[in-house]
């Protein structure tokens, strides 16, 4: 699942493959850009902004993309077979003389004037992996609505940019707080921004995301994806439920013992899934 760490690595790979080179091929397969041709323009840089990717090309243009749940950019050598999915899932092809970047299943793809990038990403809060990271501003935004559930506040990209559902669940566990706890009742809210920064920095160079001290493949996350399995810390079965505003609910994982619900109660009906082996 692409989150800030994944997008950071994707931007780095795209930058290494394309930056400083003229495009020999440009194929943007969305209706609005079907006749757009960037061939001949040099790619200046590719930068991440939270979960957004900004590919800047000469002439003051930026190709803005977002991976959301299952989008991906793949890099190939000239004679290499493309393996990112069937052809009908390709939304963008950007090629130089020695590399081809192919964007699969991109739900957002638009061409902007570079001066107008703020129209696409100006609403975002401080970027956990960006040069604009400002923990004080991120904390101010998180606490602006003190009654908002912790999990929802962490996911809101207007507060701080880069956290997705995996990191949300893991952060709540590490904070020993229910995802439904009103964020204003978090004893040390500054730990939320400190831990968020630490987790994303630790994972930006890893292919396999790890939030625990263990390197074992079956112990990489504390709670995410582990419904019904015993908590690594206390042995209580991990619970799961949906959190978020209508139509934007996300599956949330938590340990009811390590993250006591008296500090923030989950909606009725969310029970522990049947327990099975780790």
UniProtKB/TrEMBL annotation:
Q: Which GO terms describe its molecular function?
A: class I DNA-(apurinic or apyrimidinic site) endonuclease activity; damaged DNA binding; oxidized pyrimidine nucleobase lesion DNA N-glycosylase activity; zinc ion binding
Matching Pfam families:
Fapy_DNA_glyco
* PROSITE patterns assigned to the protein according to its UniProt record, in alphabetical order: FPG_CAT, ZF_FPG_1, ZF_FPG_2
Is Magnesium given among the entry's keywords? Answer: no
Q: Which organism is it from?
A: Streptomyces paromomycinus
* Protein name as annotated: DNA-(apurinic or apyrimidinic site) lyase
Which UniProt key words apply to this protein? Answer: DNA damage, DNA repair, DNA-binding, Endonuclease, Glycosidase, Hydrolase, Lyase, Metal-binding, Multifunctional enzyme, Nuclease, Zinc, Zinc-finger
Gene Ontology BP annotations: base-excision repair
What family is this protein classified in? Belongs to the FPG family.
- Please list the residue ranges annotated as the FPG-type domain: 222-260
Give the EC number(s) under which this enzyme is classified.
Answer: 4.2.99.18
Domain Formamidopyrimidine-DNA glycosylase catalytic stretches: 2-103
Claim: Transmembrane is one of the keywords in the record: no
Q: What is the lineage of its organism?
A: Bacteria, Bacillati, Actinomycetota, Actinomycetes, Kitasatosporales
| Reactions catalysed, as given in the entry | 2'-deoxyribonucleotide-(2'-deoxyribose 5'-phosphate)-2'-deoxyribonucleotide-DNA = a 3'-end 2'-deoxyribonucleotide-(2,3-dehydro-2,3-deoxyribose 5'-phosphate)-DNA + a 5'-end 5'-phospho-2'-deoxyribonucleoside-DNA + H(+)
Q: Which InterPro entries does its entry note? A: DNA_glyclase_Znf_dom_DNA_BS (IPR015887), FPG_cat (IPR012319), FPG_N (IPR035937), H2TH_FPG (IPR015886), Nei2_N (IPR044090), Ribosomal_uS13-like_H2TH (IPR010979), Znf_DNA_glyclase/AP_lyase (IPR000214)
Q: What class of enzyme is it?
A: lyase
